[in-house]
Structures are given as C-alpha cells and as structure tokens.
Fold:
Amino acid sequence: MSVSRDKILVVDDQRAVCYSLKRFLSSEGFHVETAISGEEALKKIESLRPDVVIMDVRMPELGGLEALAMIKESHSKVQVIMMTAYSTTEKAIEAMKLGAYDYLVKPFDNDELLRLIKDALRTRAMMEAVVSFDEWEESVSGEKIIGKSQEMLDIYKQLGRIAPTDASVLILGESGTGKELIARAVYHHSNRSNKPFLTINCAAIPEQLLESELFGYERGAFTGADFKRLGKFEQCSGGTIFLDEIGDMPLSIQAKLLRVLQDGRFQRLGGSETIETDVRIIAATNKNLESMVEENTFREDLYFRINVVAVRVPSLRERREDIRELVHYFIQKYNRVFKKEIKGLTSDTLKRLEEYSWPGNVRELENAVQKAMVLCKSDYLSIKCCEGLSMRAAENPSANLAEAVKNLAVLAFENGSNAIFQDLISRIERELIRKALDQTRGNQVQASRLLGISRNTLRKKLNIDG
Structure:
C-alpha cells in the first residue's frame, strides 16, 4: 500500500463513480476529494490545491473540456487525467491538445489508473520542484545542483546562457552524474517553464512502443489500436521534451525525430495527416555519439541537430572537492526524511569518501550517505556507519593508478635516458593502444571510444608506430 499523501480531486457528475474512485484511491494511501460538477471542481481546486485531477469529459453545464481549459490557465502544473466513454474519444483527443496529461476510456482497469496517476505525479514533481544552480539562489521546495568546483562553475555559466533560449541541448555524462537534474534546470529557467515538461527514457521503452509513445497513432494502426491517441510531441506542444538515453534510440525513429527538429512536423503512426508541433528538445546520453556516428548506429544529421549546445557533466572523481558539500546536502535531505539530526561527518570518513572512485557517481554517493544515515547512531557519520557498504578505499583504482604513475616516473629517471619525457609518453601510448585493441578484438572504432580519442587520432598513432 502506498504511503503517499498526494492530493487527488475526482470530478464526475455520477456520484457512484466519485464514490468508487474515492474508496479505491483512498485505500492506496492518497488524499481524495470529489466534485460532481465543473463549477464545484474549480472551487475545490483553489482550496485543495490537488496534485492530480481525474475528470470526466462529459458533464452538464460546465463540461470537462471547459473546466480543463480554466484549470490549466490558473494552475498550469496541475496534471489532469480525463475520463471518457468510447463514443467520446475525439473529445479526449481535444482535451490532450488543451493540456490534459492523458485520458482513460471507461470502463478502465484500476492498475492502469494507478500507473497513470504515478506517472502524472512524477511529471508534476519535475515541473513543480524548481532546480536551482546559482549559489545565491535558494530553492525552498525544489532541488539544487551542488558543487563549487571549476567544472561545475563553468556549467552554471553555460546554463545561465542557454536556458532562456530555445536551442536544442545535448547533455553528456556518465550514469549517475545528474544529467536529468541539468535538464530540469534548463527547463525551469527557460521561457517555457509554465508549459509541459515530459520525459522519455529511450532505453526503457521497447522499439515498437517508442514510436507510438513519441508520435501517437491512428485507430487501426496496429493490433489493439482501437482508438486514436496523441503522442508526446503533440501533447507537449509549446513545452519541453527530455529525451533521456537518446543514444539507445533506434535508427528508424531517429529519422522521424530529425524531421521534428528540422521543421516541427511529423505524422502519427498509421496516419497521413501532417501534424505541426513546437517543442524544445533536451537530450542526454552516457554514450559516445561521435563514435556511434562513425559506426552508423546514430544518424550524423540528427547528431548535429541535437548538438546545438553540448553540456558535459563531469564524473564525481573529476570533482572530488565537491564531495564534502554534496555529503552535507544529502545529510540535510535525509535528516528530514528519517527525522534525524545528524550534524555532519568525521574527517576520516570524508577522507574515505574522497579516496573512493565512485563509479556510480553522485547517485552512488547519495545512496551511500542514505544507507550510512540509517545505520548511524551518533551525531556524525563515522567509518563505522559506513561498514557494510561496497565502498572501500582499498579498492580505489584511481589511487592505485596514481601510485603506479609515481613508480613509473622513478623508474624512467633511474633508466637514465636522454629523452625521458618523450620515451615514457610513447611507451605509455603504445601500451594503452595495444590494451584497447586487445579488449575490442581489433575494432578501431570501439578502441578509440575506450581511449577517449577520435578514430583519426588512433589511426595516426598506429601509422607512426608502424
């Protein structure tokens, strides 16, 4: 059973429907109120301030569409799910164009309703909780991008310049670095912040479903398509779409996305009508798209279209000086969640955290702090609180590498060469290239990606070495 106390307003002129939905959703832990008319709904919205409204399309006097338009005008970030009979699905389509989050055809399955509510709540949370990044900008109810390293300061400057524009943004970085937070910061500080913000994870949706999710479909487009449905690009017109893990998008869908970026037009699956839309696209990936372009697994023309502005989010090991501030931020966050009063962490614990390589980046650090706080019985996080976590300083490959480089430098000087610098660099380059080619079975594209250099650079170095 959910422990959420998110507020839901059910609006239907049939009292039996209101009663049934209130009983079910209350049993799932939601705070539920009902209204039997559009007029009553508008009054209750002002006092209840619901997170989600579930409303019937057809009601006497003030109908669902009229009420929806008035709700979105005064409370643009409230998510509205429309209910409709099979015979009125065209009105539901119109509701989507007016800003409804989605719609359900009666009779519907309770599990489907719950899924939609949870998705709508996540969307509302992303739209409502402002992500701040300026150190002077306090976000009371939102989230904050943490870090004062030079890498993060450069990102803040970049965000300040690109957010107010409509330029497409490509966010690059390893998993767990906070790419979604960066995307939301761009949205919240843009001129579209009062319009929809929808997220699509291209890696999480099967190929056959991703196209219909993005572009919608006509009735009869495929088995089970019993009525027309709008896609995210039509639903989000005027707003912002965040395409997470765009490197996993199939080539067939990349072609349709390219057309949207070029002229703002597309066709629903199984349809011939050309739909126009106005969306800003923010994309993110942890993959090397340049190498994918060379391998013909990502369209070059699409890459240039989404890469108008690129934001590279550094890994946590590249900004270790931010770990202290991040830990304190997470301690404050989970003090509120766990109702604890942990004041900070000991110096040896901080040293341990700073020495670890954090392959899962900020997400892994947050998880480690959360677990440590559950185990902690003192005012400060100590090494003992971190016992049992997978993080161990002895397993730090970065520290081992630094030690190996020091030893290599000592050996180079002991060797007494007249060209120590060039000789050592050449030896290291040859060994790195040999190792990369071994691991990729001679695939130069994959080897260059592994090394973090272009394929042309790799070829030049192979030619030099003969």
Remarks:
- The longest strand covers residues 79-84.
- The first helix runs from residue 15 to 27.
- Residues 321 and 347 are 14 Å apart (CA to CA).
